Amino acid sequence: MLTPVRYDRETSEKFDPDAPIPRRTIHNLLATGVGQAASSRLIGSMLLGFGSAIIIMLLTPMRWWVTAAPPLCIGSFAAWGVASKRLHALDVAHLSAPRKRLMFALAKGAATTVGVLAGLAGIIGALWLLMDPTAL
Fold first, then answer.
1. Beta-carbon neighbour count of residue 99 at 10 Å?
2. Which burial class, exposed, middle or buried, applies to 112 when counting CB atoms under 10 A from its CB (0-12, 13-18, 19+)?
3. Cα–Cα distances in Å, from 107 out to 11, 21, 95, 128?
4. Among 17, 35, 44, 94, whose CB has the most other CB atoms within 10 angstroms?
5. ∠ Cα 25 74 136 (to 5°)
6. Global pTM?
């Protein structure tokens, strides 16, 4: 988006620092894809997904770890959403914050990687169980 100027002589519009561009309008939220879920729901889904995957991995034998893939995917998707919302909040506030941006970008990358790998592991594990149901 274009950076607004303090005063535009042609349109005689002044920059409003209380509502900087990009504003939190429905159009901007839909365009970025951020803001569709409440932060509390995303954080709850993230904790529930990662927590249940950890519990499954701690309490079951290794051959049953494939059942931890779906909650791990849900937790990763929610973690990606939380990081995206935080990055969008930095954009709306026009904050530079390079360290925060780097951390949130790394969190999004890690969540994407973990989610994709967990999804692939779940699909491969499910196919393995369908081909050899006596494996468990």
1. 8
2. middle
3. 42, 25, 19, 31
4. 35
5. 170
6. 0.71
